Amino acid sequence: xxxxxxxxxxxxxxxxxxxxxxxxxxxxxxxxxxxxxxxxxxxxxxxxxxxxxxxxxxxxxxxxxxxxxxxxxxxxxxxxxxxxxxxxxxxxxxxxxxxxxxxxxxxxxxxxxxxxxxx
Length: 119
Known about the structure:
Elements: H1 7-14, H2 17-24, H3 65-72, H4 76-85, E1 91-93, E2 96-98, H5 101-115
Antiparallel strand pairs: 1-2
Helix pairs in contact: 3-4
């Protein structure tokens, strides 16, 4: 069998028959149809004005789990676990957890009482 010499003829050898026939007629199929439906990827964005984080320096400023663990001398993993199990009230903003100091203080006090620690 004689090999094609033109580049276009060589390319056609590797294309499926359906694509060759469509391109020979001057028609190329669309890459992907546009979708009219909205897709919800990721977590929702909070746009409620009442849920704005407090400004720095306030006594009731929200804390990250690491900050709360350091302030209340409790393991960070316990705070994160309690949040995931719904035992500790928290605010989730995208991938961040925010905890109210009063809520963490109550949780830490109950954890110490349960474990027999009074420090």
